[in-house]
Design brief:
206 residues, 15% strand, Rossmann fold
């Protein structure tokens, strides 16, 4: 048995609540989002998890979620590395638009393809495949070595950057991963073998 990898999607953001495409834009968390992040920390504390290092994106909603978790764990001073590689998928021209308005502009079917296909990017943005192309190398080079040394690693990031990681860890296809929902503020705990294969996976839901 090697180390532990904890993935947490940020708590609900103001734009999640307003049904807007967020991407690389930087809205804050809602009141509910702050509470979801704190609850993630409480769940991890109840299970006795103590991260050795944390990784997050350069977007504030993920950073604040990370801060809440570490505060609940009494580890506010834990080393935290922030990198753009863990950012949410870039929605390009859709960023900031209401999803219903986007459907009116481009049509229901086209918006559905952009949101739920694996390799079709929206105008000026990234597909989930593109997102994976920056997340996976960063994970392999910067995050995974800590886990393989037997450490407990916390990654607080976004729905699609975490989808890319879950896809690789669970050996899922592009079709499977686009149907997979990653809940806000819900810790996903992987225990990895020394060869980086998954020994166990647990989702800490209510």
């Amino acid at each position: 048995m090697s180390g532990t990898l904890i993935l947490v999607r940020h708590g609900q953001s103001e734009w999640n609540l307003k049904n807007l495409f967020t991407g690389w834009r930087d809205p804050g968390l809602t009141e509910k989002g702050h509470e979801e992040a704190k609850e993630a920390g409480r769940k991890l504390k109840a299970r006795g998890f103590r991260p050795d290092i944390a990784f997050t994106s350069v977007l504030s909603r993920a950073q604040v979620t990370n801060d809440h978790i570490l505060r609940e764990l009494g580890q506010e001073d834990l080393e935290t590395i922030r990198d753009q590689a863990l950012n949410e998928r870039d929605y390009g021209d859709l960023s900031g638009l209401n999803k219903d308005d986007a459907r009116q502009k481009w049509g229901e079917e086209q918006v559905h393809i952009w949101r739920r296909s694996y390799d079709v990017p929206p105008p000026g943005g990234e597909s989930l495949k593109d997102t994976g192309a920056r997340v996976w190398p960063y994970f392999l080079h910067d995050v995974l070595p800590h886990v393989l040394r037997g450490e407990t690693v916390l990654v607080a990031a976004h729905g699609n950057s975490l989808r890319a990681l879950v896809m690789a860890l669970d050996g899922m296809s592009g079709e499977e991963i686009v149907k997979t929902e990653i809940g806000t503020g819900v810790p996903i705990v992987y225990r990895l073998n020394a060869d980086s294969t998954v020994a166990s996976k647990e989702i800490l839901e209510d």
